[in-house]
Structure formats: C-alpha cells, structure tokens
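Take the subject:
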Amino acid sequence: MTSSNIENVSENRDLVLVDHIGEITTIGINRPEKRNCINTPAATALLQAFQDFDKDESSKVAVLYGVGGNFCAGYDLEEVSKKPPVHLSSYGQGPMGPSRYETSKPVIAAVEGFAVAGGLELALWCDLRVVEETAVMGVFCRRFGVPLIDGGTVRLPAIVGLGRAMDLILTGRPIKGSEALDWGLANRLVACGTAVGQAVNLAQSLVKFPQECLRADRQSALYATFSASSMQDALRYEHENGIPVIMKESVHGAQKFVDGIGRHGKFHLDAKLHPKSKI
C-alpha cells in the first residue's frame, strides 16, 4: 500500500473510535497502518472525544487505547515535514490532541506495542497506565530532533523522578514493561494482548467508589504536583476541595461503615443484607 493510499484510508474512516461499557468510555486511536501516530485531524478528534467524555454525566472513567496492536507511535512526522505544529490551537489542545486539556475524571491508558515520542506523552497524560510486558516506551523522537511539547518534560519527571526522566529524555532509549513497572511508569504489568481488557477491569473497580470524593482527591493530588506554589498552598487547596464532599458523600459513607458495609475490602454488598443503607 502506497503512502497516498494509506492517507486515503485514514481520511475515509473514523480516526477515533468511541464506545461505552456501562459507565466506562473507551476511546481508541484508529490509524493502525501508521502505528496510530497522530496528525491534525486525529488530534482534533481525540480532544473532542475526551471533552465529550468529560461532559457525559453517565460516564465515570475513560480508557484510552490504540487500535491494531500499538498504543501510539507519536506525531505523524510526514505531516511535521510539511506542516510543523508550531502554534497552539484551541483551549486544551496540544499537537497530540488532549495533552493540555484537564479532565475532571480519571483516564486509564491501555498500552500495547509502541507508546513512543508523543505516544508516550499521551500515556503520561493519563492518570494510570496498564502496560503489556512486550510494550515499548521511549522518547524515540530524540533521533529526529523533535522536542517533547505535549507535557513529556513536565509529567515524566513527576511520575518517575528527574534522574530516570533524564535517562529516557536524553538517550531516547526504549524501556519495556518490566522496567517501566519498576520505575512506576507502569501502574500494572499485564500479559501480551490483555491491556485493554485489564484497563477496563481497573476502570470498573474505580467506578464502584463514591465519585465526588474520588475526583476531589484526584484533583488535589494534581494541584499539589503541578500547580501549588507551596506546601501550605497545596494543603489549603486540599482542604477547600475536600470539605464540600463531606456532606455529599462522607456522612453516608460513614453510615455504611457503621452498618458493616465496606469492611474487609467489600465495598458493594447486597442491599437486602443491609437495609439501613442505600448502596
């Protein structure tokens, strides 16, 4: 298949696939013939998918994956050679799509195959990363003189520490699943071919929790890591962000504990056994 034929295939189908599994939204990058590298139309579609997810009150967690065996091989260098992405676009949109957009709900990356260059940056943008043992991650754009401009230099040091981040950023070397797990880059290490299913399973476990509390704590952690000017500022934000949750969810949650629900890791017991509490 020629390069022009490949482009025609991409233009004539959805570049991003969106599906729903209960309260979970799955979002798939759909350029498998190019290892799911992102061009401008795909970036726009990907951002729109996450904005729609954020607005959808029936959806609580999103799973981002790549169609056809690769997560994402970065930005489409063929497009870069003709039309460099040097200008910021609409609010929240980076060259890779949603890399500057702040979702209010958790996003899990299901990483298989290659997650390199901008694809690594997309994985870093997610809250959690479920990584297959054979997956390959890295700053492969190093060899082509393409900088990290989708949050890679910001999020990677925050996740793995500056020393390890510099190892990947400066050398451009690959890192595979087991090392990624040791570093904390991968949150879960799974067998080849199971990343999407395991990411959905993880999402289902998050869906079960009281959502306002989960989102408040998530936002406080992000603020403390990336926005707080000091420890006191972070503590102030955490307090102000958490207080509204107490009357909305904490009092009810405390009553569930009193009624014996939620002990020993069992968060959702049959309501018939505990008629005093609504589950």
Remarks:
- Residues 231-258 form the longest helix (28 residues).
- The longest strand covers residues 16-21.
- Strands lie at 16-21, 24-29, 61-66, 107-111, 114-116, 128-132, 136-138, 175-176, 188-190.
- The chain is about 45% helix and 15% strand.
